[in-house]
Design brief:
Elements (H helix, E strand, L loop, with lengths): L1 H9 L4 E6 L5 H13 L2 E6 L19 H10 L4 E3 L3 H4 L17 H5 L3 H16 L3 E5 L3 H13 L5 E5 L19 H22 L5 H12 L5 E10 L13 E9 L2 E8 L5
Parallel strand pairs: 1-2, 1-4, 2-3, 4-5
Antiparallel strand pairs: 6-7, 7-8
Helix pairs in contact: 6-7, 8-9
This protein binds pantoate.
Pantoate (PAF) binds next to strand 1 and helix 6.
Length: 274
């Protein structure tokens, strides 16, 4: 992969990378389309990265279907699928990890210790292997995107990070490979996330800025669902991820819940449409 990337760069090509863990869906397809538009060589990596899963999390169960992924990627005009095996990325003796500090402490970082260390480490390795000039990530993993932006800036990585809007099903459910875990009843329950976000956004747009009041709006919707265990409902400044008491147009509302064994996240920025 490094050899191909070096030749492409020598020929003056722009390499666009879409890093994924596979089980590709319409959210990934939107990243690939944008990558296709902006890059000469479009690379999609498919790697279920073991270091970003904690003990007892769903690494073994994470859905995998390389044949289907290859079809989705081909339809999106991908040039190269880079699908390494775990020992290619973490050979025996591997011992180097990368940490983004404050940004990864709250939210998912608090619930999934070590998760972002695994993410930023593997993304750094992918950048070194694929040598892209730009890399595309979805905004559903908002904290991941913030940490990757910080990391590239802090370490002077010559990669433009492109954040792409959340893609939703027609009924509002945010696209996620983990949606495959949901039963029909759980999937119906999961719609409370997008309903909660919408309610808060509408309340904000109607003039409510007190976070305590906006949170009550969300809790009235999500908290009413018996099958939902809430991990967090938080209002934070979208770039620093610092908690806010008064909402503004750049306030991120971030949600994480468990429905049965499935952990789902979703978010919106109050002043934005998506
Ligand atoms: O968002 C994901 O799918 C993963 O966290 C990523 C960025 C591919 C790293 O493994």
């Amino acid at each position: 992969m490094q050899g191909i990337a070096a030749s492409a760069r020598k020929a003056g090509q722009v390499i666009a990378l879409v890093p994924t863990m596979g089980y590709l869906h319409a959210g990934h397809a939107s990243l690939m389309r944008e990558g296709r538009r902006r890059g000469d060589l479009l690379v999609v990596s498919i790697f279920v990265n073991p270091t970003q899963f904690g003990v007892g999390e769903d690494f073994a169960a994470y859905p995998r279907d390389l044949q289907r992924d290859m079809q989705v990627a081909a339809e999106a005009g991908v040039d190269i699928i880079f699908a390494p095996k775990a020992p290619d990325i973490y050979p025996s003796g591997y011992q180097t990890y990368l940490d983004v500090e404050q940004l990864t402490l709250p939210l998912c970082g608090a619930k999934r210790p070590g998760h972002f260390r695994g993410v930023t480490t593997v993304v750094t390795k992918l950048f070194n292997i694929v040598m892209p000039q730009l890399a595309l990530f979805g905004k559903k993993d908002f904290q991941q995107l913030a940490a990757i932006r910080r990391m590239t800036a802090d370490l002077n990585m010559p990669v433009e990070i492109v954040g792409m809007p959340i893609v939703r099903e027609a009924d509002g459910l945010a696209m996620s490979s983990r949606n495959a875990y949901l039963t029909t009843a759980e999937r119906a329950t999961a719609l409370c996330l997008s309903r909660g976000l919408r309610a808060a956004r509408l309340a904000y747009q109607a003039g409510e800025t007190k976070v305590t009041a906006l949170r009550e709006n969300v809790m009235a919707i999500i908290g009413a669902e018996k099958a939902v265990a809430i991990e967090y409902v938080e209002f934070r400044q979208q770039h620093s991820l610092v908690e806010v008491a008064h909402a503004a147009s750049d306030t991120l509302l971030a949600l994480a819940v468990k429905i049965g064994n499935t952990r789902l996240i979703d978010n919106c920025v109050l002043g934005e449409e998506n």
